[in-house]
Amino acid sequence: MELKHWKHYFYSRGYDEATLQSAVHLRILTESLTYPLSLGYAIQRLLATESLPLPKDRPMYIHILNASPELLCITESYWNELSIIFPMVRFYINLIGVGIPSKYHNTQQRISSKICLGFWRGSYTSYCSYHTNSTTIVAHLNVVAGDLFATFSSGVGAKAYHTQDEWQEDLGAVLRSGIPAVYTAYSDKELRRDVSFLSEGMRAEFALEAHSNPFKSLAKKLNPFSPHSTYQENLYLFIVQGSIIIDKSEVGFGLPVVAAAAEAAKVIHQHQQENLEHAILGFLDALDVQVLDGAHHS
Question: Which of 107, 152, 212, 214 would you label with 131, given CA atoms 20 to 30 Å apart?
Answer without folding.
Answer: 152
